[in-house]
Amino acid sequence: MIRVALLGVAHVHADGYGAWLAGQVGAEVVGFAEDDPVLAAEFARNTRLRHLPLADVLAAAPQGVIVCSETAHHRTYVEAAAQAGAHVLCEKPIATTLEDAHAMLEACARAGVAFHTAFPVRYSPAVQDLRAAVHAGQLGTVLSYSGVNHSVAPDHERGWFSDPLRAGGGAGMDHIIHVVDLLHHLGDRVKAVYAQLRPVPAWLLPGREATDAAGLVTLTLASGAVATIDCSWSRPRAYPRWGHLTVDVTGTAGLRSLDVFAEHVTVTGSRGRHWAGYGHDLNAAMLRDFLRVCAGRPALLLADGQAGLRSLEVVLAAYDASRRGHPVSP
């Protein structure tokens, strides 16, 4: 039996993670830690998992933990988990600062435990097909990537997402990182970053006028290709899904278009419209891979801590470039 736990449940993915893990034969969720009593009570009702103090969760000796707290609190949970000898799967971005990110990776390395970053999009069959095509040279020399990661502003579910102190930023911090990890996963690296990140009008996020909700990022890559990322919280509240992620890849021998969440149907009912996905469950594939790690087996596609660090470096460089008004190196 593989014992796992959740440390912090403020992230919008925590409910899904907890429910999936609780239903797995061969896995036992020993409990979850959460400092916010209101959020903890809601999460316990939704998942039927036990809310325990952090010390008690770690005293149950979980082999792995999933850190789903506000980004600014990741370091506290990761260092505690490492000291307890538990492998870590951490939500992205892994930290709000490079100092915290390095400290987390070093803590896990000292303790001899694995540190992995939650990038479920890597598990998309479409992503795997695109990666194989690029590596096989089917597109010739890649000239450009055009990535779009749009969504509804997630603060209507969890208010901390639009709080720069807890999230590290707004839409840029939330969305750039997914596309950057895809670029890294496809085999390229970022050399320079230019970005324009803009705040939202007060009517959209009252009290969060300093939080960026619209952004365009231009990247110069090590291969010589260029990439653009539209990372905006541009979808209205009534949008039938939280958002989408697409990437167009243009090469000297062809073009490929990736739409990670294209497999859906639109359901219309008394409560409005929503999209019901029928494709692969990417979060489940990622969690299943993490359970492999907890059982002492090698990961299949699970992103490591260095992947989380490299992507965070690019995101923070985008904020720096937006402030300075010129390109910077991550």
From TrEMBL:
<dbReference type="Pfam" id="PF22725">
    <property type="entry name" value="GFO_IDH_MocA_C3"/>
</dbReference>
<dbReference type="Pfam" id="PF01408">
    <property type="entry name" value="GFO_IDH_MocA"/>
</dbReference>
<dbReference type="InterPro" id="IPR036291">
    <property type="entry name" value="NAD(P)-bd_dom_sf"/>
</dbReference>
<dbReference type="InterPro" id="IPR055170">
    <property type="entry name" value="GFO_IDH_MocA-like_dom"/>
</dbReference>
<protein>
    <submittedName>
        <fullName>Gfo/Idh/MocA family protein</fullName>
    </submittedName>
</protein>
<dbReference type="InterPro" id="IPR000683">
    <property type="entry name" value="Gfo/Idh/MocA-like_OxRdtase_N"/>
</dbReference>
<dbReference type="InterPro" id="IPR051450">
    <property type="entry name" value="Gfo/Idh/MocA_Oxidoreductases"/>
</dbReference>
<feature type="domain" description="GFO/IDH/MocA-like oxidoreductase">
    <location>
        <begin position="127"/>
        <end position="254"/>
    </location>
</feature>
<feature type="domain" description="Gfo/Idh/MocA-like oxidoreductase N-terminal">
    <location>
        <begin position="2"/>
        <end position="118"/>
    </location>
</feature>
